[in-house]
């Protein structure tokens, strides 16, 4: 079973390095070494910077892929209109178990990221820079980088710069979550969709993008758009940072030019010659099958065209000797546990979808398949953040990519293959936070399980009204599960459900969660878990 990836796995380069220049010399480029490798960087005017980002077609590298020049101009225009200074935020919150590219960059080349962020701050007249991180290693590296530049206290510079450390959680990386935490709130989405470019940190227009995006901008500012565009594809120039894990001999982060065949990237990491499927874009991404892998090249447009996704740059192949639906179930369960617990599509829909996928594996038949499709459809575009949307996309891709295996489970006795657990998850299902009291424990799984005694249950349905996080009623009016783990945030409601059940058919037991032995020979699955702005 795959272990959690280290913060800084092996790094490889296809072609000439750009972001990873100097990695062969030292483990971490401090400021003197950074300047020796990359050279000095002259400031650019605001409109020059926007035009540079537009000419190289720079898009956000955190998953959404929004054009950076549009975001830059939007922040600048809002700052001018409102007469306030904007804020610059670097999002280094890389909290998906299968992603390490930004973590590698912060640990090994923090000054390249700061170069890009400081270019933007100078161009727009920003006086506040915040770098959001979630790991102890990235916090140490970035705080050291700020100190090396004399930016770790406000008295030595007009710019106030600091590191914001948040718990390691999937929803922490959302822009709204990071902004909320910087303002002193919890690192979860605020429950309403807002635009950081209009109303970000402290209500000011905020330029927020992920770490790789700022590093790419710094490279382009040094070498110029013509030279930058000589690498990679004409419509998506430059390089991309990829994290390759799953069924590979050597999990690694790879810097590669766009246009490189995907199969070559997989070969570098020691993937199976003919993978059963490849998950592209990470756990909010999409599966592509073995035949499609040979057609795909590393680019956003190419992967989209073949039904995949570049997303956050995670690439995860699986071999022919594992059950793809079982592997996907482990991820679906983890995604459900990562809910912020504050909107129905997330804390109700995602657990229901995971239970539905488990029902399929356990021989639930066509009804279970239709239930999963319906739940995935219902949660999309209805959540407080993008977590439900990304999770639903993953589920829909799973049932679409593995039709033969799906048929074997829905119509037969299963595919007959074990679940190897090759898709990396944090040990125990949730990442360690390193922050006392942090990590959103209230939203994780508790050590409680709730049971239904079918000899007593009379189908009153009160349990589903009180505890919808756990119980849903089937067509017959009875709960669809006989036992379930209780989310930590729902413990009080679980106790209320037990006390109010008219038939006294519910009970709660404490203790370490026990895996339910599935039917049809399915292996036991892990629960794993100023005012200046763009002036010429």
- The secondary-structure class comes to alpha/beta
The major sheet is characterized as: 6 strands, mixed
Q: Rough shape?
A: globular
Number of domains: 3
Kindly report the spatial arrangement of strands forming the biggest sheet: 1-7-6-10-8-9
By CATH reckoning, the class of the largest domain would read Alpha Beta
Instruction: Tell me the radius of gyration.
Output: 24 Å
Number of strands: 13
Q: For the record, what is the CATH homologous superfamily label of the largest domain?
A: NADH-ubiquinone oxidoreductase 51kDa subunit
CATH architecture of the largest domain: 3-Layer(aba) Sandwich
Distance between the termini: 55 Å
Strand content: 5-15%
Q: Helicity, in percent?
A: 25-40%
Contiguous helical run count: 19
Regions with little confidence, pLDDT below 50 for 5+ residues: 428-445, 512-536
Topology:
Blueprint: E1 10-13, H1 31-38, H2 46-55, H3 68-82, E2 87-91, H4 101-108, H5 110-124, E3 128-133, H6 136-148, E4 160-165, H7 175-182, E5 206-210, H8 211-223, H9 225-229, E6 239-244, E7 252-257, H10 262-268, E8 277-280, E9 286-289, H11 290-293, H12 300-305, E10 314-318, H13 324-337, H14 344-361, H15 365-379, H16 387-401, H17 403-411, E11 445-452, H18 462-466, E12 483-487, H19 491-500, E13 506-510
Parallel strand pairs: 1-7, 2-3, 2-5, 3-4, 6-10
Antiparallel strand pairs: 6-7, 8-9, 8-10, 11-12, 11-13
């Amino acid at each position: 079973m795959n272990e959690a990836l280290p913060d800084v796995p092996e790094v490889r380069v296809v072609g000439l390095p750009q972001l990873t220049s100097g990695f062969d010399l030292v483990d971490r480029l401090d400021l003197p070494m950074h300047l020796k490798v990359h050279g000095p960087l002259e400031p650019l005017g605001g409109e020059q910077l926007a035009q540079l980002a537009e000419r190289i077609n720079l898009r956000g590298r955190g998953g959404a892929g929004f054009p950076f020049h549009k975001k830059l101009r939007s922040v600048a225009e809002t700052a001018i209109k409102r007469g306030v200074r904007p804020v610059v935020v670097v999002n280094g919150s890389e909290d998906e178990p299968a992603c390490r590219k930004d973590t590698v960059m912060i640990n090994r080349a923090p000054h390249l990221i700061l170069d890009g962020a400081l270019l933007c701050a100078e161009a727009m007249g920003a006086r506040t820079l915040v770098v959001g991180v979630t790991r102890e290693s990235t916090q140490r590296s970035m705080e050291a980088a700020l100190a090396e530049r004399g930016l770790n206290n406000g008295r030595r510079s007009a710019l106030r710069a600091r590191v914001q450390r948040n718990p390691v959680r999937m929803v922490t990386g959302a822009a709204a979550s990071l902004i909320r935490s910087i303002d002193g709130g919890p690192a979860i989405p605020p429950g309403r969709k807002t635009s950081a470019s209009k109303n970000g940190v402290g209500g000011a227009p905020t330029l927020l993008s992920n770490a790789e995006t700022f590093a790419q901008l710094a490279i382009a500012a040094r070498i110029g758009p013509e030279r930058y565009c000589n690498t990679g594809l004409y419509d998506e120039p430059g390089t991309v940072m990829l994290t390759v894990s799953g069924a590979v001999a050597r999990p690694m982060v790879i810097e590669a030019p766009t246009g490189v065949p995907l199969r070559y990237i997989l070969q570098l990491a020691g993937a199976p010659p003919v993978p059963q499927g490849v998950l592209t874009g990470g756990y909010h991404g999409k599966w592509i099958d073995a035949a499609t892998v040979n057609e795909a090249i590393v680019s956003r447009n190419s992967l989209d065209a073949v039904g995949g996704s570049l997303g956050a740059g995670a690439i995860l192949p699986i071999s022919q000797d594992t059950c793809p639906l079982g592997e996907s179930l482990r991820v679906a369960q983890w995604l459900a546990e990562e809910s912020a617990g504050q909107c129905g599509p997330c804390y109700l829909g995602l657990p229901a979808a995971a239970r539905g996928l488990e029902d399929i594996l356990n021989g639930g038949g066509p009804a279970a398949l239709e239930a999963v499709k319906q739940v995935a459809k219902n949660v999309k575009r209805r959540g407080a953040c993008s977590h439900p949307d990304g999770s639903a996309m993953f589920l829909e891709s799973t049932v679409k990519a593995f039709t033969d295996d799906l048929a074997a489970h829905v119509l037969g006795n299963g595919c007959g293959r074990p679940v190897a657990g090759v898709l990396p998850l944090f040990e125990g299902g949730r990442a360690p936070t390193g922050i006392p009291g942090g990590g959103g424990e209230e939203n994780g799984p508790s050590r409680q399980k709730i049971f239904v005694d079918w000899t007593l249950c009379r189908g009153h349905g009160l349990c589903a009204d009180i505890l919808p996080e756990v119980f849903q009623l089937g067509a017959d009016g009875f709960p669809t599960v006989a036992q379930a783990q209780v989310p930590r945030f729902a413990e009080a409601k679980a106790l209320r459900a037990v006390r109010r059940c008219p038939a006294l058919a519910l009970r709660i037991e404490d203790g370490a969660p026990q895996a339910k032995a599935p039917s049809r020979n399915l292996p036991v699955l892990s629960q794993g878990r100023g005012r200046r702005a763009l002036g010429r």
